[in-house]
Specification:
Layout (H helix, E strand, L loop, with lengths): L8 H17 L10 E7 L17 H8 L14 H10 L3 H4 L19 H7 L3 E5 L14 E3 L11 H14 L5 E7 L34 H30 L6 E7 L4
Parallel strand pairs: 1-4, 1-5, 2-3, 2-4
């Protein structure tokens, strides 16, 4: 199995680029020698996972993912908000180099719409590329994905975690024997912190079950309720990851896919 499990893309990006650099230059490598890549990105998620020792997190699927591969313990992103951080892990360039120095919502954008990035590099290497969930980097045409689904932010969770897995299953099936790169961006850990969506989680945490993260520095019943719902969102996210990995297995790609999970910029 080729698996990189839990960690930060800022480190993993180098692994990928080194692995594929020669194949971008020449495509004379048989497709069977190139692993598929499933990149799972969570909104606003730091080490609040069971595999990092968080006692409130109920994340069995992500914990299992970590136990079967590599778990990064000392990794960082270069920016604390969404768009600049995402532009970095997609291009391999710092924000001051690619110019996505603010949120796409506020009309910040990269310098050029032909900035090389992981999508263009892997397409040149013969990969089919897909994105499920938001991109939130401008201009979007700089990232010519072959497949797009659920392109909105979905912060209100009108589309369920099942929809993400179903869209991924379609992408896997349509890819045939061609190697693929699929990025799946889950919104669950982003505000608003919703206690329960479509019956998930089945047994949500309440304010009396948690304490705020130690770096918050204050405590109140209202804050604890928000923290509890953040963990409820993470449990729902974990269920979505489990459904996604099941779709990968059902498609026959468990043993030929590099699976990477990380949060876009921390909690």
């Amino acid at each position: 199995m080729i698996r990189i499990r839990c960690g930060c893309w800022f480190l993993v990006l180098g692994v990928l680029f080194n692995a594929f650099a020669s194949r971008v230059v020449t495509t004379r490598v048989d497709a069977s020698e190139r692993p598929n890549v499933l990149l799972i990105v969570s909104e606003d998620n730091g080490p609040e996972l069971g595999c990092y020792g968080d006692s409130y997190a109920r994340t069995p699927n992500l914990d299992r993912l970590a136990s079967e591969g590599v778990r990064f313990e000392n990794a960082f992103v270069p920016y604390s908000v969404c768009s600049p951080s995402r532009a970095v892990f997609l291009t391999g360039l710092y924000p001051h180099q690619n110019e996505q120095i603010g949120l796409a919502t506020h009309k910040f954008a990269m310098y050029e719409d032909d900035t090389p990035n992981v999508v263009t590099w892997l397409k040149a290497a013969g990969y089919r590329t897909g994105l499920i969930g938001k991109l939130h980097v401008n201009p979007e045409n700089a990232f010519p994905f072959d497949y797009r689904a659920i392109s909105n932010s979905n912060f209100q969770r009108k589309q369920s975690i099942d929809d993400y897995a179903d869209s991924a299953a379609k992408f896997f099936a349509d890819s045939g024997k061609k190697p693929f790169f699929l990025s799946v961006n889950f919104p669950d850990a982003h505000l608003p912190f919703l206690r329960r969506v479509n019956g998930r989680p089945s047994n949500p945490l309440g304010a009396d079950d948690v304490r705020p993260m130690p770096w918050v520095g204050v405590d109140s019943s209202r804050l604890r309720e928000q923290v509890a719902n953040y963990y409820n969102c993470l449990e729902r996210l974990d269920t979505g990851v489990g459904l996604l990995l099941k779709a990968l297995a059902d498609g026959g790609h468990s043993d030929d896919t590099m699976v990477i999970y990380f949060g876009d910029h921390g909690a």
